[in-house]
Every structure is written in C-alpha cells, then in structure tokens.
Amino acid sequence: MNKVIFTFLASLLLLVSVSCGNNSKSADGEIEVGITIYRYDDNFISFMRRNIETMLNGKVKFIMNDSENDQVKQNDQIDAAIQRNVDALAINLVDPASASFMINKIKPTGIPVIFFNKEPSKEDMLSYDKAWYVGTLSEESGNIQGELVVKAWTSNPNWDKNGDGVIQYVLLKGEAGHPDAEARTERIKAVLADNGINIEQLDEQTANWDILQAQNATDAWIEKFGNKIEFIFSNNDAMALGALKSIQKQGYNIGDAAKFIPIVGVDAIPEVIEEIKKGTVVGTVLQSPKDQAKAIVDMLLNVANEKDVLDGTEYKLDDVKAVRVPYRAITLENIEESAEAYK
Ligand code: GAL
Ligand code: CA
After folding, report:
1. Which of 38, 98, 117 to mutate to test the pocket of ligand 1 (most atoms within 8 A of CB)?
2. What number does the ligand 1 atom closest to the CA of 92 have?
3. pLDDT in tens, 117-171
4. Which of 3, 16, 77, 160 is 20 to 30 A from 329 in CA distance terms?
C-alpha cells in the first residue's frame, strides 16, 4: 500500500475511533467493564461476587479477577484492564489505603471507577470526580451489634457466670486498618458503655475475617480462660463460626447450659443463620450482598454507558459520593428477614 494512502487510512481510523468516544472503547467496540475482588475465598464477599456476576451476565462484557489478597497482583489486574481500555471499573481493594495509588493510575485515563466494600478515605474519594463508593456505614454495624448484645445480656442474667455484673469478653477483629473492622471494634464497646454495661476485655485478636484464624485464636483463649469467657464479640460471621467450632470441640454450646458462651457476628451469612436457629449463636447484623451488588452493577452500567451514575435509580450519594446500604439486627425473632439478601 502506498504510504500516503496508508497514513490517510490510519488517521481516518483514528478519527472514527475517537468520534465513537467512550461508548466503543474496547477493541471489538463492545462495552466492557472490569471488576477486581480482593479475594474470592472471603465468605461474605463470595456472595457479593456471585450476585455481581449474575446481574452482569448477558448485559455487558466483563472480566472479573481474584486479587488473592495481594495488592501487587491487583495493581497488575487494573493495569491490564486499563490496557484493554475498559469503559468502567469496579474495585474491591485489597488494602483500602492503596486507593490513592489506584486513583493516580486511573484518573489520567478518565475511566470511571466504583469502589466497593473497602472504603477509601474521604480525601481519596474527593480526589477524582469519576470515583464512587458502594458499601455500608461501618459504625452502624458496630452500633447495631452493641445494641443486640445489650438486649441479650440484660435478658439473660445467668450469662454473667461469675456474677460480678461485668461482661468478661474476647473480641475477634477483622483486618487491621479496614474501616469496618476498626469501627465495629470501637462501636460495640462504646455502645455497651453508653448503656451502662460494664465490660472487661480478656483479649482481642486480629483474625482477618477468616474462619481458621478465628478458630486458632479461640482455641488459645479456651485453653487460657475457659468458662471465664462470658461473650465472644466477632467483627464478622466467618470468624464467629471459627469461634463456635473451637468452643464446640471443648464441649461448649452443644446443649449443657452451664457450658455456654454467647457469640455475635456481622453479615448474616446462611451458615450463621442456621446456628442462630439452633441457639448456638445469639445474633448477627445483616448486610445485604444482594442490595450492594445491585447498587454496584446499576452504577457501573450507568457510568460505562456515559450516563449519570444514578440514572434510573433511587440511590442517594452522600458527601463522599457513597451509596450506603443499611444494616439490620438479626436474632431468632426476625430470622427470616435475612433470607432474601442471600438468595
Ligand atoms: C466486611 C464483611 C467481612 C469481610 C470484609 C471484607 O464488610 O463483614 O465479612 O467480607 O467486609 O472486606
Ligand atoms: Ca461477669
């Protein structure tokens, strides 16, 4: 081909692709979105992931990645998505503190991004006008969990095994630095104090939302404190299950009323719902993976199609451009309320 004609054709092609704008960015002209999940084997997150997949299926081309709890891996996955020129991104950060790094990478490309589940700082959120967040209000889960404990403790005087009027408790914490873990850990104690309930912390361990780590921590606690433990406060349900497994091995929470340690969690995953029904777990705080996935997908499709992020929805953005899905207390009395969220 003649060089002049080639150059002409090449610039024509460029012109055509530019004039098509964002709507046909990916190579084959189809709208494409990229989603990264901090780790597929997180119990609660696996429900979010499956919901997102189901909701995107047939609607848009998408690539979803497992970042395997590795921020470097996630950075590479985002680089690859940028290379593919995706129309929008949804990111469940590995490390919430890496949001600024991510935004610095994404902002020059103009690709819109919906962060979810691991909340970036306010400063980071406000540093890019095409960044939004879908999640919950972290403090709310700690407040509700605290209120749940107040109610359960005051209506079960026999749980104060040493009769000193003080809750001797252990606490299982999620990932350090994760807004949910920090807020849940702080708020439950604050709510108990605000309600005039005296507490004594026997120990607090970080178990990273993980069933096995929680089981190991609880094994050590049972060995050290045994039946002196009057409550197990867990930042999430997976860790609550780990604690339950551990204490059941030692004969707790299997029917002997004298060997009972109340446990509370957060998420309302189906396995914990089953335990609440059996009376082995006292309660949990529902956060709906379905409602959050729906918000993520609605907003992602909107921005990928260059519509207003809230187009056709009833969501409201707060001062950090976040959509917050509310939490709800779940105990035996309203156990069926959690079913819909995990269907
Ligand atoms: C929390 C949830 C935990 C864990 C964590 C991951 O909101 O309660 O179970 O999934 O997110 O970031
Ligand atoms: Ca006591």
Report:
1. 117
2. 12
3. 999 999 999 999 999 999 999 999 999 999 999 999 999 999 999 999 999 999 9
4. 160
Ligand 1 in contact with 118 (CB < 6 A)? yes
Does the C-beta of 209 come closer than 6 Å to ligand 1?
yes
Query: For 29, which DSSP code?
Result: S
84-99 burial code (b ≥16 CB/10 A, e <16): eebbbbbbbbbbbebb
Q: What is the pLDDT of residues 203-225, one digit of tens each?
A: 999 999 999 999 999 999 999 99
pLDDT per position as a tens digit, 62-71 = 999 999 999 9
Residue 27 pLDDT = 55
Helix 71-83 / helix 99-106 crossing angle, nearest 10 deg: 10
Atom of ligand 1 nearest to the CA of 135: 7
- CB-based neighbours (< 5 A) of ligand 2, an ion: 160, 162, 164, 166, 168
pTM of the model: 0.92
Tokens read off for 153 = 């403790």
